[in-house]
Amino acid sequence: MPRTRGYKRVENNVIRSIGRFFGKSFRAIGSAFASVARGGRRKLTIMIVPHSQKRVINFQTSFFSLIFFVFAIAGIIGSFFLFSRHSVLASKDLAELRQEAGETRASLDLLKDETGRLIKAAQNFQNAFSGTLSLIGLDSSTSAAKSSIQNGDLSSLFNVTESAQGSLREASELQRLTGYLESSVQPIQEIGKLLNSQGTLFSDIPSLWPIKGGIGHASMEFGQNRNPFTGQWYIHKGLDLSTYRSGDAILATADGQIVQVDYDSGFGNYVIIKHKHGFYTRYAHMQSFRVSKGQYIQQGQVIGYIGNTGLSTGPHLHYEVHIGSDVVDPMKYLNIKASASR
User: What is the span of the domain harbouring residue 304?
Assistant: First the structure.
């Protein structure tokens, strides 16, 4: 029991000590706040003394009011600088936007000029294209394209009403141009088919110059000529082409099949090719062959080389064109491609 009472006494002493400590602390804090409050409520007198003889200006304020005024002034000055900074940044952004707007306007002007050039070029294309359609006789097969041309072609681009202004007008012109070009696809495809069929026809008839590289000249033409051996007039049934030398490559003038590779005393080494549409061609006085009987060859393929075999006065190619049993002038067919290109 005495020991228990001793513990209680110590416990009570500790609690009282802690209570006294916290009490003193709170009183000290309260005293500090009270001192600050008294100091803050203390009156200050501010005097403004002018250099002239005017009356001195006095006004009183508290310490708290002065601190509040200082913070208010600092806030106003800080807000002013922040606003100024934002204004400078906004002005910089506005200047950049104006520069970009100027560059965009310049780009639009350039685009407008290029659009005008495009439309003029398209008008030239329209004129040339219409002339080409008339030339090759596709007018009747391209009525849809003609209808599109009449209703929305490039001629109307230069009569656009002024109801649409500025960029809207140019957009309308480009839309019309797009429609015209789309309507031109079918006629161009027809032209391609026609040219393809003509290209096939050119390869089926003997229209290619028979010496590689387009060299050589006609040393004796088709028809009435003097025989170089007898001096008598006779009908020369072919075209003699000379390069003044042996060994130049001889080309097949059209697609076909080799039907004869032979030699005789008159023609020397010669080749006969059978073509479509009843054409035959003969190549005589050859130095050597590059083909064999029964072989299928293509236009422009080398079949042999110029020589001086058989009854010949010098190196040359004797070239004949037959249609069925008739012999015709080869030059009429050798000029076909040149005439077509003109």
Answer: 212-341
